[in-house]
Amino acid sequence: MSVRMVAAAALALIGAADDPLTRPLALERAAEWLAPRPPVRMFGNSYLVGFGGLSVAMIDTGRGLILIDGALPQAEPAILANIATLGFRPRDIKYILSTEPHFDHAGGLAALSRDTGATVIASVRGAEGLRSGRLAADDPQRGYDSRFPAVPRVRTIRDGDTVRLGDAVVTARATPGHTMGSMSWSWRSCVARRCKAFVFASSLNPVSADGYRYTAPASRPIVAGFGRSYTVMRGLPCDFLITAHADQGGATDRFRTRPGACRAYADASRRALAARLAEEDRR
Predict the structure, then answer these.
(1) Contact 48, 189 (CB under 8 A)
(2) What is the SS3 assignment for 198?
(3) DSSP 133
(4) What is the structure's pLDDT at 250?
(5) Euclidean distance between CA atoms 23 and 152, whole angstroms
(6) Which residues are 197's β-sheet partners?
(7) What residues of the chain score a pLDDT lower than 70?
(8) Are 74 and 111 in contact (CB under 8 A)?
(9) Which strands, in side-by-side order, build the sheet including 240-243?
(10) Strands 93-97 and 119-122
(11) Do residues 35 and 15 lie in contact, with contact meaning Cβ atoms separated by under 8 Å?
(12) What is the pLDDT of residue 242?
């Protein structure tokens, strides 16, 4: 581990109040979400450098690294340490792709971008949330008003566009619903002539702050967004599925390789949304 990373880890241990970009959030969930896990190579150039409850992926493109998501603000030193443990240099991170503008996945992006010089990339709506550091007005969880460190500079990307670096091509897949700016990411990883399709999926669970109703007229775009996301997720090639929260859809592993994993993920969300709508209708 470099001197800089050791210093960052020491700062985290004494409490990151001296650094506004790594001040701890969600202390009541941090032990669960940031449960330590060793970094792991899944296949080819694709790795996990995150935690037991929050996923952070890394792609070695041969010309730099791509990260997906940044977990909580206080997670930054551990993410960088995991990258170093694998033998890579954090300063080689060129891009950080964001799934959704929520503090548990985007909270660490500001510090990671600052300390590595990497460019953060998000959907147009997602970028609005990252730049403001707060939830959008139409976000079902807006009532929590969960703020996180803002990311001043964000490059935007649209559905179907690609991020190219070295031998990697990562495709943006709009998956709205959980937030209207949610973006999933897909790519192929090859070893010799053997290739695998990867999907890092944004959250699809229909959760909300108290008082929010998915059956309200104002929520119709959200519900329609979920429907589009189910179609997208079910249609993606998917040998490896990584979800933003490692336990989404009842998973017990950090990634899933069973056939039909992306279809099962979409179907689990569809059932959860249907149950939520039915519950609201009974009220």
Answers:
(1) no
(2) strand
(3) T
(4) 59
(5) 17
(6) 188
(7) 1-17, 249-252
(8) no
(9) 162-165, 168-174, 183-191, 194-201, 240-243
(10) parallel
(11) no
(12) 97
pLDDT at 32: 93
Within 8 A by CB and 6+ apart from 71, the residues are 33, 34, 50, 51, 54, 56, 79, 104, 105, 107, 108
**Residue with token string 């493109």:** 61
- State the CB neighbour count (10 A cutoff) for residue 149: 24
Q: What's the token pair of residue 93?
A: 């991170």
Handedness of CA 39, 44, 46, 52 (dihedral sign): negative
Question: How is residue 260 annotated by DSSP?
Answer: T
Cα–chain center distance at 129: 14
Residue 283 has a pLDDT of 80
Sign (positive or negative) of CA dihedral 277, 279, 281, 283:
negative
**Quick check: helix, strand or coil at residue 132?**
helix
Lookup: tokens for 236: 């993606």
Does pTM top 0.85 for this prediction?
A: yes
Residue 14's pLDDT is what? 38
Integer Cα distance of 77 and 45 in angstroms: 22
CA-derived radius of gyration, the chain? 18
Closest among 232, 154, 151, 230 to 186, alpha carbons compared: 232
Q: 270 — phi, psi (to 5°)?
A: -60, -45
* Amino acid at site 273: L
Task: Give 92's DSSP letter.
Answer: G
> Length of the chain in residues, anyone?
283
Contact 262, 236 (CB under 8 A): yes
Domains and CATH numbers, the chain: 3-282 (3.60.15.10)
* Local structure of residue 210 (DSSP, 8 states): T
